[in-house]
């Protein structure tokens, strides 16, 4: 064989070629177009333009002749979104009247016993006339809607609410007749997504409001689904399904597609929802952990709040890691997830006779009690992370005919059972790692499966190691009610402290978010995997995506009972009536640790909707209060204008404080410092002012404090608030005097105002820094 000699190039030639390659790469990156959201200072429009649209177009054309606006925004921001190169975006920043050129980002989805669990089985008894809730419209910004779902039955509902301006947007798979008096509006927004990823493949997903994913149908029917008798998933959770506000109307805004949710589309959906006239906005998505003036959802939520629309968002599924929250702006109601008292037990019986409890909603052929060979995935895998049963990782010759133990994490839980099945396995034990603790999440697996907690999983793995021929069997046991303790904080639920503003406690509260039954799309099976061809009308899934619409629906109930209340008043009612202890006096557990949860985990506590309808007192917040908050966190006038669209200058001679925001909870930062000669420092004293509004009958409220540590002295003045009239306001101050503690120390307390009938509670968190 003849081998040709390599030609050796001179060093200068090599360097020249490398430099040319890098230059070409740089030019390529410059030419690659991205989506940008352009925030304009509308008040700065030159007099030479007749309207702001003409001005927007002129500024854009000054940097690009070919660029066309994707969306024009008026409600959420003043501005537009457009596809530009980085160079063009840089030039646009220099144009007069431009507040911010913001690169678009991708957001991700945070993914029927609950009415009974929440005490809403007879909720009509607590509400005003039955027609009032039907006037409330919940806008759901998500993956769209499956209009044929039985939960959108409009039987018994009257004409559309007054002031509704929305419509049923038509697409190839969606007709104007797809909407009715329950699903009163449906729109889709894909301009940003298609600019980023190319045209939507309509053979793979619907370019219409139709939900091909299931997430949007699940969240919207959780919030406001009509009553459906005989609902279940493969016989699990059988019973009557209904949303939180079953008489409320639903408007769907599809902004999420197979590749995710673009901020420009989310902003367009929120823009249109505000214009259409929704009363509640529900967003079970997240992805931005940015300052508020760069957070698309926070900016859109401020616009909605200023129009009297309550915005409820999921806290995220980043738990149990601390500081894992998203959607933390103080004008957003941030919702974490807890469990209910319902479980779907599945049992693993080992060859040594030991029986361990897990969970599953598998519905196929069982193992009929037969003991089968048991293996740990790590020992039968061809990859370094084979314990996770990722796609293609298992060795069929070592798996065939066996039950495989897979660890939870990385890939979808149901996909692991599909991997075991494809490799020839006949069953799976899904074992939690320390990140998930004892949390049991049930899935519609493809083979007999039991998801077990970390303790049981470790015991099964030890059995495999110690036994020469380990064996096991798996059996499902249907639906179990009355599980205690409940609720417990879900391990996946994102936790505080608030990573943007630690002085504002987040999440605000928790609601059911584990193993929730609600409506589903007819496009995909219950796992959502392409290989899943099973058709279901209802599905059981988990996530803060599920807890968010619970609160959205409950907020609609409060809005129906008190239509004059502001978004802050509604949130206050939900927070101050939430509970953080069981009836036996013990704090709600955190399933990730098996110990008591803290306000960083559960916020004000678990929502109690019946009490929220009559809270007694509320902490109200105005738009001006939020402006003062932005001054307190040292935002410039231009930053404030990006969020609020207002010309607002923080007064130089005024002292602004985050502690002055009339929030229903307290997050108190305390300084750790050494005194002279290394001794303890003088006490740190901070003062908070709060104002309560009477929304009940005349009453006298007295304050009580419970706390964990004696390191902080708490003084409330006055200790008694006497309300004589409806909507009367009373102000009180809380002075916290604390001795120095080790940096990183946290402690908790609880403040309550009570008139003997109502309890108006606020969590308190102390953090020494």
Proportion of beta-strand residues? 25-35%
Outline the biggest β-sheet.
Answer: 7 strands, parallel
Q: What would you call the structural class?
A: alpha/beta
Averaged pLDDT: 91
Instruction: Count all strands and give the number.
Output: 40
CATH fold-level topology of the largest domain: Rossmann fold
CATH class of the largest domain: Alpha Beta
Shape: globular
The whole-angstrom Rg is 28 Å
Please count the helical segments. 17
Approximate helicity band:
10-25%
What do these coordinates show?
With 769 residues, the protein is of the alpha/beta class. It is built from 17 helices and 40 strands. Residues 1-30 and 675-679 have low confidence and may be disordered. The strands form ten sheets. The protein has a seven-stranded parallel beta sheet, with helices on both faces. It folds into four domains: 11-103, Peptidase S8 propeptide/proteinase inhibitor I9 (Alpha-Beta Plaits); 108-338 and 487-567, Rossmann fold, CATH 3.40.50.200; 345-476, Glucose Oxidase, domain 1 (3-Layer(bba) Sandwich); 617-621 and 662-768, Immunoglobulin-like. The longest helix is centred in the N-terminal third of the chain and has 21 residues, at 11-31. Residues 204-216 have a biased composition (Basic and acidic residues). The active site is at residues 142, 215, 545. This is Subtilisin-like protease SBT1.7. It is found in: Secreted. Residues 373-460 form the PA domain.
